[in-house]
Amino acid sequence: MTVRLLFLGEGSSDDGITDHIETIAAERGAEVAVTNPELGRLGHVGHTLHDKLSAIRALGGEYEIVAVHRDADGVGRRLRLDEIRVAVQEHMPASVCVPVIPIRMTEAWLLVDETAIRKVAANPNGRCRLNIPPLHKIESVPDPKAELKRVLADASELSGRKLKQFNLRFSENRRQLLQRLDPSGPVSRLSSWKDFVTDMERGLSELGY
Questions:
Q1: DSSP letters for 123-177
Q2: Do both 79 and 142 map to the same domain?
Q3: Number of CB atoms found within 10 A of residue 8's CB
Q4: Looking at the structure, do residues 194 and 178 belong to the same domain, yes or no?
Q5: Distances (CA, A) of 135 to 77, 129, 147, 172, 190
C-alpha cells in the first residue's frame, strides 16, 4: 500500500524535507505519495496551522500521515508539539500526526556540513575559515538563519556588488543545502533531527511498517 502523506512546511524552501521523509519511509519498506500543496493557489488562506488544515480538508483529500514542519523558534519543542497535535486531531483525526520541529530554525540543520556549504556557495576549494559553531553548540545558536547567511557569504569569498547579488539568492541556497543534507552525516547527532526520524518511524509503525 502506498502511504498518502500530507506535508505542511513553513515555506517553499522547506520542500527538501520531503526528500528525507521519503528516504526514512523507504528504509522501512514503505512507499509514500507526498502531497505538498501550494496554499497560495487556494485563494486567501490564513497563516495559522488550523487555517491551513481547514482549507486542505475542504478539498476532500485523505491522508494516512500528516507531517507538519514548524520551527521551534524561541518557544521550544513542547509547545510546538502540542500546537501541531491539537490542530491535526481537530481537522484530520483519522491521520497519524508526524511533527517536524528543528530546534529554533531549520537553518541549524544546515550549518553542520562545511563541504556542502562551500559547494552551494560555488567556491568548493575555498580556504577561508568559516567559524561554524561546533556541532554540540549548533542547536543553541540564537539566530541560525543569520548565522547561515554569514557562513554562506564567507564561503563565497565574494565582495561588493557580487556579494550583494549572492546574498539575494539565500532562499535558493538554503533549499539546495536542505536537499544535499546527508541524513547519515553530522546532522544525525542533533537532538531535533533524531526526534524527527523517531517521530516519522513511529508514524510508519502505527501504519504497520
A1: -TT--S---PPPGGGGGG-S-HHHHHHHHHHHHHT--HHHHHHHHTTHHHHHHHH
A2: no
A3: 22
A4: no
A5: 19, 16, 14, 24, 8
Residues 112 and 43 in one domain: no
Same-domain check for residues 58 and 144? no
Q: Are both 122 and 93 inside the same structural domain?
A: no
Cut 0.85: pTM above it: yes
Whether residues 126 and 147 fall in one domain: yes
Same domain, 111 and 98: no
96 with 27, same domain: the answer is: yes
Environment class of 33 (CB within 10 Å of its CB; exposed 0-12, middle 13-18, buried 19+): exposed
Q: How are beta strands 31-35 and 2-8 bridged, if at all?
A: parallel
Judge contact between 144 and 72, C-beta under 8 A. Answer: no
> Domain of 144?
107-186
Q: How many domains does the chain have?
A: 2
All 3 cell numbers of residue 116? 556542502
Q: Count, in order, helices (H) and strands (E) of the chain.
A: 9, 4
Sequential pLDDT tens for the chain (209 residues): 899 999 998 877 788 999 999 999 999 999 999 999 887 666 677 778 998 999 888 888 899 999 999 999 888 899 999 999 999 999 999 999 999 999 989 999 999 999 999 999 999 999 999 999 999 999 999 999 999 999 999 999 999 999 999 999 999 999 999 999 999 999 999 999 999 999 999 999 999 99
Q: Are 204 and 27 in contact (CB under 8 A)?
A: no
